[in-house]
Each structure stands twice: as structure tokens, then as C-alpha cells.
Specification:
Layout lengths: L1 E3 L39 H19 L3 H6 L5 H16 L22 E6 L6 H5 L8 H9 L3 E6 L2 E5 L6 H6 L7 E6 L1 E3 L4 E6 L3 E10 L8 E10 L4 E8 L4
Antiparallel strand pairs: 1-6, 2-4, 2-5, 3-4, 7-8, 8-9, 9-10
Length: 250
């Protein structure tokens, strides 16, 4: 998986399945509740990865609402927590086969919950600070956004700055805040090229449904082969392996 800077065309997808979370069938602002799992034995580094997985799944739901996609910077914590708890329940079942096969699979980071890229006009004096590697610029609008959202300068090359948030955010709404500031030409979420392992999730009436997958074979261009595990987590914390399918594992 190779990291690149992308300026995306905005595409609004329609979701028609009556089971999939969407703005017609389910209000993402009113989440379900799931039994709290014990995560005390999970290393902090793993919990951090699971939290990012949960935030990405939550953001995928949030951006199905066009208004929230571009106006709600904070990803609802209860939605993140719902997915986090479900993933922890699955992780805690790793000592049982076949759950051990999915415990190390993480969400493909699309969309990103941390990174945005900004194309700026180098004729503006404030941009010199970014070009020097300085986080704050002296531009009150820019610096206010940097401080309010604890944004960090990851890199700056020529007329493109890469910013990141240490905490998961809706990068679509965050990047929109920079649009219109004098000197900003384009501001959008950063992106990834290629494909890889992934987790997809659905919020259903009686349970959470997670689909874990591993991909291989020319993944920089889009994985040729993929193997899947479908796992349900009931709201009482019960974990069930529903099915395993796809291309035979190498």
C-alpha cells in the first residue's frame, strides 16, 4: 500500500440495501448499544489500531449523510465506541479458531480519519512558514484552525502541505474549513493508492456484522484475489463466525 496525495472528485453514492446503514433506513446519530468488552489485556498499540479501525468504519457511515459529510468535523464518539466494542469482542475471541485468522486484520484506511492535503498560493507571505516546516503561519485563520483541531504539519513540498490530526476526525468537513482562506487553492482529505486487507461493517437490528478480508496479487493496482470471513457480534457481546469464503488462501 503506497501513500500518495490525491485531490478527489466528490462522488455521492446511493446505498439501496435495506440492511445496510444509510440515511433512509437508519439514523447514524442514534446508534445501538453493545455490551462493554474487557480490553485491559490488549496492548495499547493494538487498542490504538482498533480505535482507528472503529473511527474509519464510523466515518464511512457518517459520510453517507451529505450534510454531515461536509459540516460535522467530529465523528460521533458513540458510533466509534459501538464499532470499537464489537471489534474488541472479536479480538478477545482470537484464542478460538477461526477467529485467530481475523484478529490481525485492520481496516483499509479509506477514507482517512487523520490526513488532509492543501494546495496553496506561494505568493502569500504566510505560506513561507509551512515551507520552512513551521506549524503556525502568522495567518490568524490558518493558525486558529491548526490550534482548535490540534493539527500538525506532516510535510510541505513546493505548494502542497500535508496536515494531520492526532485524533480521528471527519477529514471531509475539516478540509472544507480551509476552503476560502486567502492563499488556499484546494483543501481535501489525503488518500491512498491501491488496495489491501480490509474490514467492512454493517449495523443491523440484532447485531453488528463485520466482514474481514485479506487481499493479495498486484494490490497496488487493486488486489486480484481476496478471502473473506463474515463475523456477527450480537449486542450482548456474543461473537459468531457466520461464513468463510472467497479465493483459497495462498
Amino acid at each position: 500500500m503506497k501513500r500518495i496525495i490525491l485531490f478527489h472528485l466528490i462522488i455521492i453514492f446511493c446505498f439501496t440495501s435495506c440492511e445496510i446503514l444509510n440515511t433512509d433506513e437508519y439514523d447514524w446519530r442514534k446508534t445501538k448499544f453493545i455490551t462493554s468488552p474487557d480490553d485491559t489485556s490488549i496492548p495499547d498499540s493494538i487498542k490504538k489500531l482498533i480505535r482507528i479501525d472503529a473511527a474509519t468504519l464510523a466515518l464511512r457511515d457518517l459520510i453517507k449523510d451529505p450534510e454531515a459529510k461536509y459540516n460535522l468535523v467530529e465523528i460521533p464518539n458513540d458510533l466509534i465506541e459501538l464499532y470499537y466494542r464489537g471489534l474488541v469482542h472479536i479480538y478477545n475471541a482470537r484464542k478460538y479458531s477461526p477467529f485467530d485468522k481475523v484478529s490481525n486484520i485492520h481496516v483499509f484506511p479509506e477514507p482517512t480519519v487523520s490526513d488532509i492535503v492543501i494546495l496553496f498560493d506561494t505568493t502569500y507571505v504566510w505560506t513561507l512558514a509551512w515551507k520552512r516546516g513551521e506549524r503556525l503561519t502568522g495567518n490568524s485563520e490558518i493558525d486558529s484552525l491548526m490550534e482548535n483541531y490540534n493539527l500538525q504539519l506532516h510535510s510541505c513540498h513546493f505548494d502542497i502541505a500535508a496536515l494531520y490530526s492526532p485524533d480521528p476526525v471527519n477529514t471531509y468537513a475539516l478540509s472544507k474549513l480551509f476552503v476560502g482562506v486567502d492563499g488556499i487553492r484546494i483543501s481535501e482529505p489525503n488518500g491512498y493508492m491501491g488496495d489491501g486487507n480490509n474490514i467492512q461493517a454493517e449495523i443491523l437490528k440484532s447485531h453488528l456484522s463485520y466482514t474481514f478480508s485479506v487481499g493479495w496479487g498486484d494490490c497496488p493496482s487493486g488486489c486480484i484475489s481476496r478471502h473473506f470471513w463474515e463475523v456477527n457480534v450480537e449486542y450482548n457481546g456474543t461473537v459468531k463466525m457466520i461464513k468463510e469464503y472467497g479465493d483459497p488462501l495462498p
